[in-house]
Amino acid sequence: MAIAKKFLDELEKRRNTARAGGGADKLDARRKKGVMTARDRLDALFQAGTFQERGMHADHDCHHFGMESKSLPCDGVVTGAGLVDGRVVASFSQDFTVGGGALGRIHAKKMADLMSYALKTGCPVIGFNDSGGARIQEGDDSLSGYGAVFFHNVLLSGVVPQIAVVAGPCAGGAAYSPALTDFIVMVKGANMFICGPEVIQAVTGQKCTMDEIGSALTNASVSGNVHFVADNDAHAVKIARQILSYVPSNNLQDPPHTPTPELDLSHDLEMNQLVPDDAKTPLDIYRVIGRLADKDSFLEVQTLWAPNIVVGFARIQGIVVGIVANNSAVKAGTLDIDSSDKGARFIRFCNVFNIPLVTLVDIPGFMPGIQQERGGIIRHGAKMLFAFAAATVPKITVILRKAYGGAYLAMCSADMGADLVYAWPGAEIAVMGADGAVKILYKREIAAAKDPKAREKELVAEYRQQFCSPYEAAKKAMITDVIAPSETRAVVSLALRTTLSKRESRPPKKHGTIPL
Fold this sequence. Notes:
By secondary structure, the chain is an alpha/beta fold.
């Protein structure tokens, strides 16, 4: 005996209907424009044949506004799990060809159920957002659906990595699901905003274009909402896979370290050549990172926003690390409101997913100015202090040049919990720079000198040697050691190997109250 052919035929027919989405003509039209369909995106993400779909036969249950006679294949979203580079990953992909990818009750339930599955199995979630927003015909059921999705985004936060790919429209309340994830990858040509230009003009009288408020570039460089900008769908998938290659599947696992069998402790003499002779000349932090990290391993996060701080993932002799570095080529490397937010968020992500932190310090202080003060630089800057102090992963700090005032502490000094702190020979660690300090401390003496400028120069040199020298900090056990730039990769590599087993207990509590 065998199963009746009619049952198999009906199954295949239903599967084909679901896979067809909004119809062959709509799918072809997207592909001709160079835009992937919902299923194309999943095919590009997962290893061939490994994606197991969930809820293929789901459909809406709305009985108003003519919807009772209208079928929406998969209810506009494809969900399931499969293998990405051998690891289990859960994913949903909204189908714009089906009712504009609008979210209704069943659509939201499929997404929430998938996230519950990811929570139970401990696997990352990658969501492809391509939706016109809430399905108006379903009224408050759509709002309730968004609530369920947001709740699960928060439930998963800090447990499994969440990556949102904004591949089409993502407007209004829909934008808050990506905003609740760990990383947003946005495709050029997609839009993400709360209120469109028409609404903004109607309510405020201000005229604007979509590019000014919702483009990938605006979200990445002005508002800081987006972490990566992709040229197209295929590029977005590639970026998502790159992110996954640095992070564990969940918070109970270690990152995918691939330590080199032999630890290379040789000196890199080229690193010595990166230090400018003039302390006021910017240090090229990207060249420093390039020589510290394994070749081509640095994946920068939020490249276009707050570039005075550089954050990203890398490998150092095979060990996955999160790098936090001041960029003296932009705003002299000072910490301002945006860079503090950027740094703190990245630090907290690394901490929750057990990724060691390597901090490269070259900072003259917090950004001065009326706008910064009124904008809350105290509150925002405190986020950096909180993030580093709260982090229990291995923390290794290298002071490259300047380390002044409270900003020195905000870049993970020993007092803020760094496990190991190294300084280059020309580094300066002080409450403030020698130039400023001398003008305050020796104001009268300079004014009374026969040659005030010459005397000031002498005093600055004396102050720098006596009070800013890294050897002074080393004498007080504020730093672990003074090292040559050429030794940096060897020293940091060995430090990472010796601190990977770190365990640190904190007082029991629900969570700290970070100054948001």
